Amino acid sequence: MRRGLLVGLLVLLLAWPASSQEPIKIGVLMPLSGPFAAGGVAALQSLHLAEETINAEGGISGRRVALVVADSQGRAEIARTEALRLVEREGVWALVGAYLSEETLPVQDVAAEKQVLHMVPVAATMEVSERVAKDPRFRFSFRISYNIAQWAALLSTFLERAGSRQYAFVGVNIRWNRELLDHLKSVLAGKVELVYEGFYSPQAPQMEPLVVAIRERRPDFVVLGDPGAGAIEFIKRAKELDLQSRFLSVGGALGDARVAASLPSGEYLYFQAATWRGLTPQATQYFSRFQKRYQYLPVGYSDTLPHDALTVLAQAAVRAGSFQPADVIRTLEQGQFPGVAGIYSFDRSHQAIWGQGGLKGAVIQWVNGSDRVIVFR
Amino acid sequence: MAFLQIAVSGLLTGAVYALMAAGLALALGVGKIVNLAHGTFYTLGAYLVFFLFSRQLPLLWALPLAATLAFLLGLGLGRLVAPFRAWMDASAVLTLGLAILGEQMFQAVWGPFYHSLPSQGAFHLRGLILPRQEVLAAGVALILLASLAGVLRTRLGLGLRVAALDEEIALLGGFDVAAIRRLALGASAAAAAVAGTLLAPLGVIFPSMGRNPLLLSIVIVVVGGFRTPRGTLITSLLVGLAGALISFYLAPSWAYVGTMMLLAGSLAIRPQGLTR
After folding, report:
1. What is the pLDDT of residues B50-61, one digit of tens each?
2. Is the ipTM of this structure higher than 0.85?
3. Which pTM was predicted?
4. For residue A225, what pLDDT is reported?
5. Nearest-CA neighbor of A362 among A300, A284, A292, A294?
6. Cβ B116–A263 below 8 Å, yes or no?
7. Which whole-number Å values give the CA distances from A299 to B46, B123, B130, in the listed order?
8. Which of B116, B244, B259 is the closest to A232 by Cβ?
9. Among the four given CATH numbers 3.40.50.2000, 3.90.320.10, 3.40.50.2300, 3.90.226.10, the one describing domain A2-146+284-293+300-344
């Protein structure tokens, strides 16, 4: 009898650490195929770096972090069904994603419905934080990235400090670019004049007419709202057709050093980034680690903020000492959390505070293919 | 001068659309399949240029390499889809699957990232600025379309035309219809790959880059018909020109929608197609 009890106790002792060390699953939704795969794959790479760091530092309350990845394909309906699968079948504790605003909103719906923590690493639409502010059901979502108003504020700060008097806006004809220009117009009203706005079709963009139209108006800056392939094509046409303006991009494709190396030399191209190497020791270390691992330089936004989303979430759970969503939410609402891009804190709409009094961001200039950092102060 | 710049740019763009669309017209008209993998050959051509560039090999090799490789793959595609030819929707689903597979393969080999090749500069001609690569692409496209028109006047061309019209008559005429169809699919794939090769330095190379040219080609073939290269060329030039003019004089956001509305309107007036 005593022997049986001892064996039973031994089994329990052996089993106990195993169950306590069962990894905590975090669902990741990113477009890993299709037109947005470039951004989605880079975002996932940054998440894996964060996962490794967290696990190397002991995980969350002793439990290892395991990412469960789903391909949202850049499509809202896929993002929704995959988010449901991650929660219901994979049993994830939290969700990170998706990438586009259009696919992030259905993930936010699932998080609200299933009461699962949700970190928004890239999407910019105002709707994400407006929902949180208006409806307590959406309290599970926290956004790490800039919202569109913050994007406009950061871009306008640069334009004003660069002495711009007239600007043109070129973007792809999708919601995010339309919203961005609306905000930019209102922030720059009476300060920098908008002389041209053009939104090209994502299906068949023809860049020459835009370049010719802008060339006639001679703005000192052209703001490029497309973080994808269209912006590269536009710059190529613009340089071929002798457009003399400088260009301020929202980053993404034009923040990629490999792409920059293929563009005509000069000092005409700037892009917005959340952070960059040389800005802080953390950023420099992250950039160096990313480059060493993946053999290319990150763009400092969509391949950096997902890293911070996971890092901030893990810190909040450790500080809360609990995996209960309510405890983690309370901690996130009240605390400050260091990440690669700086110290994160959230406003009442669960939006990370960027710009005035918050995270700074930076503008990077490509100078003949090499990077030069311009810091907001 | 702005009008001339925009008009010439639109026509150059249209000429390149024509090459891609002529390939699709061959697949549909003679090959009798809705080839939704047509864009995959376009992407293949673009990646071949990138491959040569990254290995510092002469870019001129890209054209014959892309054409030959795509032609062989097109022949293979012809064999693969042969059993499904009687059911057009089945061949569409099969080629759609191949297109998705193709994108995944490109992503597996070259990654999902954007690749960009250095710009080739521009010709300056009495106030007009013409991107060199665009002129080259349009020129090659026109030469290839003219060659196709020439081939259609030969005995082989007669076989292609009869096979497109009626299989039984072609068989009675002693034509090897199966071989003609495979040949048409090979040539169709080669045309798409050459278009990709020519346009790669102008744009951006990534795995799903073939989707938009495919959609545009389908529209051009539907409106322009698939019987003659002339129809394809005229429709393509109209699409390029309309897109550029609408973009400049109305708004870029209206370019695509406006062009599609014009084409839809033309179909309402001439349901048999613009040039038939």
Report:
1. 999 999 998 889
2. yes
3. 0.89
4. 94
5. A300
6. yes
7. 24, 34, 32
8. B116
9. 3.40.50.2300
